[in-house]
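Appendix B: complex inputs.
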Amino acid sequence: MRKIEIVQNIMEANDSIAARNQGLLDKHGVFAINIMSSPGAGKTSLILQTIAKLKNKLSIAVIEGDVASTIDAEKIESHAAAVVQINTRNMPESCSLIANMIDCALKNLPLGNIELLLIENVGNLICPSEFALGEHKRVVISSLPEGDDKPIKYPMIFADADAVVINKLDLLPYVDFDIPAFRHTVEGLNPRAKFFEVSCKTGTGIEDWCAWLSDEIENHTHKIMNKGG
Amino acid sequence: MHELGITQSIVNIALDKAKEAQASKIVQINLVAGELVGFVPECIQFYFDILSKDTIAQEASLIFTPAPAQLRCRNCSTTFHLQDTLWSCPKCHSQSVEIIGGRELYVESMEVE
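Resulting structure:
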């Protein structure tokens, strides 16, 4: 018997497809965000609000990830430029989107006509944090009824987020969610995360969120153009 | 249930490296899994037994070495290990901490014949 030294990252297979996805998106000038949260926190609602606010300025496509059903894709279909629904039920990873699924979805999107791609991950605070998809920014939504302890219980997803959206602000009078305490915990794990306090129901805070997103798209476009030129 | 894809990657890495080394049997695969990585070793072994069937990795044992969750305080720079779920510095009690270890997941080595 002999020993072979290897030292090879197991995530490499996923990460290299994610890098390829990002290269393809950059080639077509598509800015992609990966939207993650627990089920019911408001991923689809935030997508609908974002499209409503930005669709006159940007061409927006959506990738919907769910274990089963096309409910979310149907909700979005008439609003977005294009929608692809991924059902993860029979896939090796049913609890999260992985880079390979995005690779397939991108083949079904008119990338040349899209400026913003919103990827709605499977509702889950654990698994999606492990898999890069090729996105440019990661967004985590926490909604008030879930409680303010989620960053303590699921730290990794918050540690990697570029933006944290606190949703269902309209429910603040009815629930015990300590927003400063929540923000303090996330800031401890991740000082670079941007916070947005919104209500997708009333539209509160959506403007700020969309302004940030527009700025990020612009910054990224400049970066890509400078690189290319 | 995301261990299946990960396990497939482990099997692929192991079979590739065994082929390179012209090995005829993989006896043991040594893996390093960070404490902050959300994968369950028992689950990986379960899938491994199915995926490695009829390959030279069949019946190989997977040995996991945990890599500790290492944190560094952004306030006083103390380096410490995560105790339970307490994400605060043992020295100055600051909750501003940086993750510096415990997210790795790799195949370290294997024993072959």
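The first helix of chain B runs from residue 3 to 20.
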